[in-house]
Design brief:
This protein is of the alpha/beta class. It has helices spanning 6-9, 35-46, 86-109, 127-142, 179-192, 240-243, 261-267, 308-319, 366-378, 383-389, 399-419; strands at 22-31, 51-54, 70-71, 117-124, 149-152, 167-176, 196-198, 205-209, 212-216, 220-229, 247-256, 273-276, 283-286, 292-299, 328-338, 345-348, 354-357. The chain has a domain at 1-8 and 16-115 and 177-239 and 343-393: FAD/NAD(P)-binding domain (3-Layer(bba) Sandwich), CATH 3.50.50. It binds flavin-adenine dinucleotide.
């Protein structure tokens, strides 16, 4: 992944951090050095707790260092679909807005230069999608979320130079950034507050202990009063019961060579990021150095194809005929953890291990807030945790063996819906 991603090509090379060896004792052990785990580590270390982060590979190896960089305020579904009462919907919506503020507050106060660019355009591929976006717009206004505006077909060209959309909804509070720069910045900040990050340290087992938990890697153990597992789509059997609630879906990204400024200006005049109202959607934006970073083609069988560029290019050229034959400089893929409900799942196992997963493609900002809420729960402040934990969740039907084939069938149905007028 490090060899093929635009993100890794655009940050300075780093020395790996040390793996765990021997025994450590801390207040909080965090499994996974993505945005969720690092956010919890930063928050807890800033409050004076001793923190160890254990990462199988390296900081940013998972979705946090690979994602599309789109900051889309809110959740993957609208609050009305949470299956909760109105007060809980409003409370969760506030936490999602706080997630955006938290990201900005951190990148500014910690001095993380991560190519922030405001503006998020939700495009409508069909006329019926315009009606759904108008309903969503109304719902947001009802929640007191101001500033979004509906865009009719004639106005689309102000945001995106593509012939394929019927209109959209513009959100000035959204935008995009370089997610790896932000993730690496959070890791540095957590360390500056005293947290220790171990790389090349896959956690094999977590045992309950009279004083809390013992977290085992092949070369060492960490005794911790509290343990938080933040391994999301890259989970591999550590909390097997929890993994039944998420499905790791593969999604692919390509990035062109830098484009001529005049062409870049035509493709997204506002430089906003764009996603689509389809079930299987494209998402894209211009990078700071004028490349088109284009994500699309989700594989619900979890597989990343060998030739990612060949897989994504037709989708990019459909949206932007102007990019026909454009040179693709980088191509990579990654896994998104989705839940059946498309809302994140937050909770505690019977042994008291905290976990958070299933941001369903919308974790760039939410993961930071969830990480913060987990640290607050460890510090005895439960309100945010309790609100997230209210979100109802069901395991994927079919158990571990059949959830994938059943979901593939389900997605064929949704793909058909996308293709119908
Ligand atoms: C290609 C792609 C595009 C996306 N685009 C967007 C987007 O544009 N906008 C958006 O909001 N969201 C997007 N997402 C989703 C978003 O990136 C995630 O929701 C978010 O990064 C989740 O962060 P995390 O820290 O929970 O998980 P991750 O970043 O995946 O981190 C989990 C970490 O846990 C480690 N780990 C796993 N098991 C163990 C173990 N046993 N021991 C130690 N470590 C372990 C992994 O190595 C990994 O580094 C995208 C995701 C992908 C893959």
């Amino acid at each position: 992944m490090q060899e093929t991603s635009y993100y890794w090509a655009s940050v300075p090379k780093r020395e790996p951090r040390k793996p765990l060896s021997g025994a450590e004792q801390v207040d909080l052990a965090v499994v996974g050095a993505g945005l969720t785990g690092l956010s919890a580590a930063l928050e807890a270390a800033s409050a004076g707790l001793s923190v160890a982060v254990l990462e199988s590979e390296y900081v940013g190896f998972g979705a946090s260092g690979r994602n599309g960089g789109l900051l889309c305020p809110g959740f993957a579904v609208s609050p009305g679909d949470f299956g909760l009462d109105q007060d809980s919907q409003a409370g969760l919506w506030r936490l999602a807005c706080d997630a955006v503020d938290l990201l900005h507050q951190r990148r500014q106060s910690l001095g993380i230069d991560c190519d922030w660019q405001p503006g998020y355009f939700m495009s409508a591929g069909k006329t019926s999608h315009m009606r759904e976006l108008a309903d969503y717009h109304e719902e947001l206004e009802g929640l007191g979320y101001r500033g979004t505006q509906m865009v009719e077909r004639a106005g689309v060209q102000d945001y995106v130079g593509s012939p394929v959309y019927k209109g959209g909804l513009f959100d000035p509070h959204g935008g995009h950034l370089h997610p790896l720069k932000y993730t690496l910045g959070l890791a540095d900040a957590a360390e500056a507050q005293g947290a220790t990050i171990f790389e090349g340290a896959p956690v094999q087992r977590i045992d309950a202990d009279s004083a809390g938990h013992v977290v085992h890697t092949a070369q060492g153990q960490v005794r911790a009063r509290h343990c938080f597992v933040a391994n999301n789509a890259y989970a591999s059997g550590l909390l097997p019961q929890q993994e039944l609630y998420i499905l790791p879906v593969a999604t692919l990204i390509v990035c062109t060579e830098p484009l001529e400024p005049a062409l870049a200006q035509v493709l997204t005049p506002s430089r906003a990021c764009v996603d689509e109202s389809y079930n299987i959607l494209n998402y894209y934006h211009l990078t700071a150095d004028n490349r088109m970073l284009f994500g699309g083609r989700s594989n619900y069988n979890g597989r990343i194809p060998a030739d990612i560029a060949a897989s994504v290019r037709p989708r990019m050229e459909h949206v932007f005929p102007q990019l026909k034959g454009a040179k693709i400089a980088h191509a990579w893929g990654g896994h998104v953890a989705i839940t059946l409900e498309r809302t994140p799942q937050v909770g505690r196992t019977q042994d008291g291990v905290l976990f958070a997963q299933g941001f369903s493609g919308q974790g760039l900002a939410l993961s930071g807030q969830v990480g913060k809420v987990m640290a607050q729960a460890v510090l005895g402040e439960q309100a945010g945790f309790d609100l997230f934990a209210k979100l109802p969740h069901k395991a994927f039907p079919g158990g571990k063996a059949l959830r994938m084939p059943l979901q593939v069938l389900g997605m064929l149905y949704y793909r058909l819906q996308d293709l119908l007028p």
